[in-house]
Amino acid sequence: MARDYYQVLGVSRGAGQDEIQQAFRRQARRYHPDVNKDPDAEERFKDLNDAYSVLSDPKTRARYDRFGEDFRKIPEDWEERVGAGAGGGGGGFRGWTTAGDGGRVRFTRGFGDDTGGGGVDFEDLFGAFFGGGGAGPAGGAGVTIPGADQEADLPLTVEDAYRGGRHAVTLAGPAGQRTFEVNVPPGVTDGQRIRLAGQGGRGTGDAPAGDLYLRVRIQPHPRFRLDGRNVHVHLPVAPWEAALGATVPVPTPGGTAKVTVPPASSTGRRLRLRGQGLPNPRGPDGDLYAEIRVMVPPRLGDRERELFEELARTSSFDPRRER
């Protein structure tokens, strides 16, 4: 899985060097393995260092902004080679986006001036989305450029993210629709990317095709709320269950579990079910937090009303008194 370097540091693409440095220092202190003993901290710290090494260098950052993660594969003299292959027509690099019916599809790089005219034709260089491509600019003589990486959203439910498995995703582009079978690992989190090697735009000459990155987008759920790999859920309980304690069922992304409600539990109390959140292939699984919600019957029967009235007469409990 891969992440956007700007997202790793938590800064915008227009962030200045001071902001990038401050963001790195702030998060590096938080995730340094000597300070943070969480199993994920070391990997997070490595990601931070990788992102900072790229974005802190203006030249490296400029190449990353142009080519994304493929910037290391692009030759230093790419402008001269493109200019020569295009007969010196020029035309600067620019990124652009488009939306397909099957999901938002984003091309990570393209060529041409800002008005869309002149320069080097994008489809000639990199091929149309999901294939295509021509002989290259001006016949493509001597021009070898890797295919464009492409990116699209992969919507998943909380249950899908928990279980993983194979999923079909259909994306639409200028060359039509294409359906992919994607192997989603259990425990993916929102924003993670799944790489489909060689499924992006075609390269010119003998250059390899680009990759297709599917960015996980976990959809809002009527019951579950995610915080990383931790899952939060409301747990309705009856007044007598809250007062006396009880063992009640609680929904989890993997099915129904049992939780013990301690006596004298009020609304807002959180019960932790260790390991019942999203799986983590690199460390402990996430937890599930069930937050108690004390519910009263919508209608009282005669005997229920008598019992509540008797409780009201005999109890000295005042919920509005400071405790």
From TrEMBL:
Q: Which UniProt keywords apply?
A: Chaperone
* Ranges where the J domain occurs: 4-68
Quick one: where's region Disordered? 253-287
Q: Pfam families, per this entry?
A: DnaJ (PF00226), DnaJ_C (PF01556)
Extract the InterPro entries matched here. DnaJ_C, DnaJ_domain, DnaJ_domain_CS, HSP40/DnaJ_pept-bd, J_dom_sf
- Name the PANTHER family on file: DNAJ HOMOLOG 1, MITOCHONDRIAL-RELATED
Q: What is this protein called?
A: Molecular chaperone DnaJ
List the source organism.
Streptomyces hygroscopicus
